[in-house]
Amino acid sequence: MEDKTVAPNKVITLSYQLEIEGKETPAWFARPMKVSFLLGRDPLMPIIEQAIVGAKEGEEITVTIPPEQAYGPYDKNLVQEISLDQLKNPDQVKEGEYYQEVTPTGRQLMFLVIAKKDGKVVADFNHPAAGHNVIMKIKIDEVREATAMDFAACDMRNCGSG
Question: Counting CB atoms within 10 angstroms of each CB, which of 54, 69, 104, 147 has the fewest?
Fold first, then answer.
């Protein structure tokens, strides 16, 4: 019978969900995700790797990721006043909500609307998790031995860190 313990050179499939500690988590940030990787070969945050090594298939783990390893500190310089006429959809700007659009150059623009008045908006361009711990709820869905094809696919992705 195959050992279902998370260890290097095994393919791990896990489901996870993120939360922001101490504040409401936007739905787009908290949506459930699933990922597979070759442990010890594919890139993975060390704090997550340390938390899952030794866990068994089916086990659930909660990891608290500090701001400096997640989205960094809150930067008050990223709160800026901008003119509403610079935005494609100024009618969609609502205080306390996130506004987003794609710029003419194809860049994603997103910010939290702090205030809106006199044709201007106070926009917070910090990531919602900046300055906060990120809580990662993990479930180990599958642990299996890596095959030659798994190693080859990993090499094709230029892996080697982790």
Answer: 104
